[in-house]
Amino acid sequence: MNDSVIPGPLPQSRLYQEAFAVHGDSPAAVLWPRGRQSLRFKALTQHFSGAGFCVLDFGCGLAHLKDDLDQRFSDYRYIGADVVPEFVQAVRDKHPTAAVHLIRNYAELVEPVDHVVISGTFNLIDGAISSEYLAYVQGALEHLFSICRVSLAVNFMTDQVDFTQPGAHHVNVESMYRFMCERLSPRLRIDQSYMPYEFTIVVFRNSGIVRPDNIYEPM
User: Is 76 helix (H, G, I), strand (E, B) or coil?
Assistant: First the structure.
């Protein structure tokens, strides 16, 4: 179905801590045992351009996004944030000049950034009730979009599958599209072309329209 292996209904942090203890600094430690991170990162960041921009990697894990961006950009600022202490310390050791924050809740993040990237962060249900977790996710998206100047990019596992693992969080594409348009911005892009069973949404801050051409303003 997808890369993520979810062994049971354990708290999110404990799952990641156990995976990191076994696998070290690898995609498997962030529950992507098959890798394929580059495909996800491309979908999440292909709109990045220029220099001097700032990226918040929410749920940064082991900062594999930074490793990817470093191959493409030499002048940008990376900020990581995660709830797993072992991940935060490992990233600080690996990238001592990067700003990496140990957080308890998304509301602690208030510094404006150009781009917010959220990769795999919402793939596990934190709690027993999926509807309550979806409400939490939507609240997080609203807050994180409020601090971005250019874009917010997030990926999810789709609910269009014939099998779901216990504890996995699958999202309906149409419902998330409606939420994004109504609560964040109507200017967005949905990408389901890079991998089955997953999708990425990139939502843009600038939704101004050029009249009378009826096109969006340049970003």
Answer: strand
Amino acid at residue number 123: N
Give the chain's count of helices (H) and strands (E). 6, 10
Q: Distance between CA atoms of 95 and 66, rounded to whole angstroms?
A: 9
pTM of the model: 0.92
**In terms of Cα–Cα distance, which of 55, 54, 61 is closest to 90?**
61
Contact 200, 40 (CB under 8 A): yes
Contact between 112 and 77 under an 8 Å Cβ cutoff? The reply is: no
The dihedrals phi and psi of 35, each to the nearest 5 degrees, come to 75, -130
User: 11 pLDDT band (50/70/90 cuts)?
Assistant: low
Distance CA 32, CA 52 (A): 30
To the nearest whole percent, how much of the chain has pLDDT over 90? 76
d(CA 72, CA 44): 14
Which residues have C-beta within 8 Å of that of residue 160, sequence separation ≥ 6?
Answer: 173, 197
The answer to whether 184 and 202 are in contact (CB under 8 A) is no
**Stretch 88-99: mean pLDDT:** 96
Max mean pLDDT range (22-26, 71-75, 161-165): 71-75
Task: Using the structure block, give the residue that is written with the tokens 């140990």.
Answer: 102
